Write a sequence for this structure.
């Protein structure tokens, strides 16, 4: 009898084969990190079923099985070998195996050179990810699978990490998107993660086999793979057990079953793990801490006896709804704290109906709403005010500590921190897209260990040796927690370690503080996560200061919104009354906007017959039905200029230019240059999601920036159009603008043509020209360019190239002259209309709407004008920076930041691409320049994910801070 056991990250699979290789028994169970116990239990059950079989052959495989196998002297088989052996035995002719497990994902290429691609310690795009997303939507994975079959729309959702995905999904739920559409989108996100993150440019083709739990149980996930890969994969019988089958087939050593069970029962935990100092030494110290923090109390008032006006504040957060009704002196009459269940409107409606019913004689004088669901709640219930989260929290914090210098709010998925200077918000920190270290971070682990979040937090208060977990992402933390469990850490010490980790994430990943002095001595902490005494204690210990935690720490957004509404009351409230609320209907429809090339996925919320709210739009056109027109937006103007370069038929035929990276600045030059040489210049179409996915299969690295990833789609689109010659040169140097110590292109811009050439399977009749070219030395250009072009077009002459160079230089200068003239006009117009001016600073390719996701239009919709760094960088003379200033694009950034130092109506917002290593330097330098000039630094990280919720919060917070009378008076 041969036994194979596959111990994965979350499950244990076991098969028993007879002498002929037929399956006698198969078992599949979750092990909940109790690996040794579950393995022993399975082997005992086999002994009971087959008492006569004392001599067996046994082998163990799987990502979590090696340590136990080695410790107990049981043969171990590498899981890739085991899977390959099973596939060759049961499915000969297999070309590719795609296997998704609980926290593991792998692709095995079996033909054309055997190779395996596996995920690292990140569980994004695996079964654990799908489980997290199902839990977020209050569904089981099976229900999610069923809904996905009914979907009509697909949204762009991150899958590289569960906490990124929550950031995309929660706003969709809050805005009324259908769970069926989100479910389908999640499955396609998993597919894209697998292809981009694991295949990394190697084609998936031929006979493809699907293995593992998610692909076995979720038919719509298999359908998403089939649709994306343009094939029909096979999910074989016993697909859950292929690694276990291979392990059984490779088992050769004869063992005694009783002896193996005895070894497993005798193995124990080590009792050794990295630990840190406890939060409290004893109960007495904890009691003193608790009494100190009870001082920041908010009074309550009995609504049965109170008479007079009341004020409503609502915080429609990422996962919860908070609401407060207060009196004019700030006392709380009634409060609400509930999960939003993906429908914030309904939760607030029911709260109001109950309040109206219980207290019909208490008039609501004014109302305000804040949070992720601000707009939909305000539109649905006709609330008087919408207030950006940061201002709501600041308003509440001042109530408890008028001299507050720093506020940190940790919520379900958000960390918001802001410095206060001169009585106004001076700097804002938000977690970009990752929610590790937030409330959901602790809640996830509490649930996994079988506790409520509140009970789990209490366990850690008096832990004697908290586990040292550092500051890591949630999916990385999973393995650390499991290892600590195996090493004997108690639940109490794990709880304390996680609370400390939350604080470290906030301090060192969001605020990046180096000392308490940076934050000041007057600090208010808020957000539901700080109701956890362990998190609060860890924060005070880590920073070495005592802070204020109001008794309504979890309701500060709602409390601030209520205070905001009260301060701004100007007349009767517009809030819906009881009869209107009773009759309120809410219908949701998903549509695609076709008014511009963005093709935004819109969610249309219809309230009754005469009101609607549209979300998902990057501009106001779906709402106003009017064209963009003459927006004070240099990004829109640049796009119009670039789209004006049309193909002109020439004697030498077509030549393709992939419209990405530095072509967003050099197109005027190259279009004029090659048109003069007699080529019909064909540019690739505007970037969109379909174009990105078209080239995704050849992307060799998931960590490269999104603008570079798009180049695969642009080159592929030119090939699809039948363009046989594509010009995409390597350019180490940019043009020298004499702004810094050098004029290099960044390595990705400079050398990505080499990546395209090495990873894209080009048709035999397509020529990709990737020669090294330098525009920075015009005197050498003619000679070298002639030699390069003559390799592909022998009839080209030096004289033609010289004339083409003149045409290119003239058109390049003309393009920049137009851009700067329009920039000057936007500045003049904005000042006439008293509009704030935002320098939306980045790279030339950030003009691409698929890259910037309409952030320029979002800024315009907030009432500001938009210019880019190259509209003003030429106004600054070279100056000394704190870093080596050798990159042309970055030199413009620094010059623009320096230029606005005495421009009171100008502020800078820096666009940063995820995966850009150089921006680790530029962001700190730009921040330093701005803060030395008493300016607020605002950074927005962007990639292929289109959720603009956090972006809008950041922009509105900046504008609100600039409008604050205290700040304006200080300038």
């Amino acid at each position: 009898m041969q036994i194979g056991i596959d111990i994965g990250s979350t499950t244990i699979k076991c098969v028993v084969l007879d002498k002929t290789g037929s399956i006698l028994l198969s078992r599949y169970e979750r092990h909940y990190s109790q690996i040794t116990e579950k393995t022993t239990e399975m082997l005992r059950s086999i002994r009971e079923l087959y008492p006569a079989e004392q001599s067996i052959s046994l082998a163990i495989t799987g990502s979590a099985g090696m340590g136990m196998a080695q410790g107990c002297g049981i043969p171990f088989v590498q899981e890739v070998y085991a899977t390959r052996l099973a596939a060759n035995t049961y499915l000969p002719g297999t070309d590719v195996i795609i296997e998704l497990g609980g926290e593991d994902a792998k692709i095995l290429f079996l033909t054309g050179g055997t190779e395996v691609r596996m995920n690292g310690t990140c569980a994004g795009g695996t079964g654990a990810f799908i489980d997290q997303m199902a839990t977020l939507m209050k569904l089981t994975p099976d229900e999610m699978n069923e809904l996905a079959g009914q979907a009509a729309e697909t949204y762009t959702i991150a899958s590289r990490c569960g906490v990124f995905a929550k950031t995309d999904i929660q706003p969709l739920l809050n805005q009324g998107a259908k769970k069926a559409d989100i479910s389908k989108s999640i499955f396609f996100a998993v597919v894209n993660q697998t292809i981009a993150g694991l295949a990394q440019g190697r084609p998936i083709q031929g006979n493809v086999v699907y293995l593992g739990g998610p692909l076995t149980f979720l038919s719509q996930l298999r359908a998403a793979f089939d649709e994306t890969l343009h094939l029909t994969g096979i999910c074989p019988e016993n697909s859950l057990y292929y690694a276990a089958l291979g392990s059984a087939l490779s088992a050769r050593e004869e063992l005694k079953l009783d002896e193996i069970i005895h070894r497993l029962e005798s193995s124990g935990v080590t009792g050794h793990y990295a630990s840190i100092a406890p939060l409290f030494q004893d109960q007495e110290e904890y009691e003193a801490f608790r009494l100190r923090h009870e001082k920041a109390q908010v009074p309550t008032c009995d609504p049965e006896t109170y008479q007079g006006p009341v004020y409503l504040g609502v915080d429609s957060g990422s996962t919860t709804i908070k609401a407060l009704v207060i009196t004019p002196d700030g006392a709380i009459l009634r409060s609400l704290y509930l999960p939003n269940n993906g429908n914030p409107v309904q939760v607030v409606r029911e709260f109001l109906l109950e309040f109206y019913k219980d207290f019909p004689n208490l008039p609501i004088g004014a109302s305000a709403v804040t949070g992720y669901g601000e707009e939909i709640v305000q539109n649905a219930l006709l609330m008087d005010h919408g207030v950006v989260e940061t201002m709501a929290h600041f308003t509440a914090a001042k109530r408890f500590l008028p001299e507050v210098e720093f506020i940190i709010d940790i919520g379900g998925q958000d960390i918001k921190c802001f410095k206060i200077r001169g009585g106004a918000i001076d700097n804002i920190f938000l977690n970009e897209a990752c929610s590790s270290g937030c409330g959901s971070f602790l809640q996830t682990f509490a649930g996994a260990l079988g506790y409520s979040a509140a009970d789990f937090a209490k366990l850690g208060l008096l832990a004697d040796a908290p586990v040292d977990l550092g500051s890591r992402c949630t999916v990385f933390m999973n393995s650390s927690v499991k290892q600590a469990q195996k090493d004997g850490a108690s639940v109490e010490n794990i709880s304390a370690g996680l609370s400390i980790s939350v604080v470290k994430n906030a301090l060192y990943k969001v605020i990046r503080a180096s000392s308490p002095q940076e934050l000041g001595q007057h600090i208010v902490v808020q957000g539901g996560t700080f109701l956890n005494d362990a998190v609060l204690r860890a924060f005070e210990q880590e920073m070495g200061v005592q802070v204020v935690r109001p008794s309504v720490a979890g309701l500060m957004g709602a409390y601030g919104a209520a205070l905001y509404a009260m301060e701004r009351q100007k007349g009767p409230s517009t809030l819906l009354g009881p009869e209107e609320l009773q009759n309120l209907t809410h219908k949701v429809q998903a549509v695609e906007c076709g008014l511009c090339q963005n093709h935004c996925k819109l969610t249309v919320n219809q309230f009754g017959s005469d009101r609607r709210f549209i979300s998902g739009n990057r501009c106001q056109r779906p709402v106003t039905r009017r064209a963009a027109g003459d927006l004070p937006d240099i990004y829109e103007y640049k796009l119009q200029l670039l789209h004006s370069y049309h193909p002109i038929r020439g004697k030498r035929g077509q030549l393709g230019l992939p419209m990405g990276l530095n072509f967003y600045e050099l197109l005027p030059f190259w279009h004029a240059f090659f048109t003069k040489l007699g080529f019909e210049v064909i540019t690739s179409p505007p970037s969109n999601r379909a174009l990105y996915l078209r080239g995704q299969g050849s992307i060799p690295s998931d960590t490269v920036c999104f603008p570079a990833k798009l180049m695969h789609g642009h080159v592929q689109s030119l090939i699809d159009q039948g363009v046989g010659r594509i010009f995409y040169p390597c350019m180490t140097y940019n043009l020298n603008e004499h702004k810094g110590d050098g004029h290099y292109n960044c390595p990705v811009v400079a050398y990505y043509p080499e990546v395209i050439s090495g990873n894209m399977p080009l048709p035999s009749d397509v020529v990709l020209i990737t020669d090294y070219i330098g525009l920075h030395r015009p005197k050498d250009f003619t000679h070298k360019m002639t030699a390069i072009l003559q390799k592909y077009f022998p009839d080209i002459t030096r004289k033609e190239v010289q004339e083409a160079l003149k045409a290119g230089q003239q058109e390049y200068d003309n393009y920049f002259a137009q851009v700067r003239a329009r920039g000057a006009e936007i500045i003049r117009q904005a000042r006439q209309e008293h509009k704030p001016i935002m320098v939306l600073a980045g790279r030339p390719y950030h003009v691409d709407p698929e890259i910037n996701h309409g952030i320029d239009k979002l800024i315009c919709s907030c009432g500001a004008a938009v210019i880019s760094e190259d509209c003003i960088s030429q106004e600054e003379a070279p100056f000394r920076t704190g870093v080596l200033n050798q990159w042309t694009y970055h030199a413009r950034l620094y010059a623009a930041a320096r230029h606005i130092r005495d421009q009171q109506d100008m502020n800078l917002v820096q666009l940063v691409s995820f995966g850009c290593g150089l921006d680790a330097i530029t962001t700190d330098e730009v921040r330093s320049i701005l803060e030395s000039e008493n300016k607020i630094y605002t950074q927005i990280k962007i990639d292929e994910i289109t959720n603009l919720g956090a972006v809008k919060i950041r922009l509105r917070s900046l504008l609100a801070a600039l409008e604050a009378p205290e700040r304006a008076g200080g300038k």
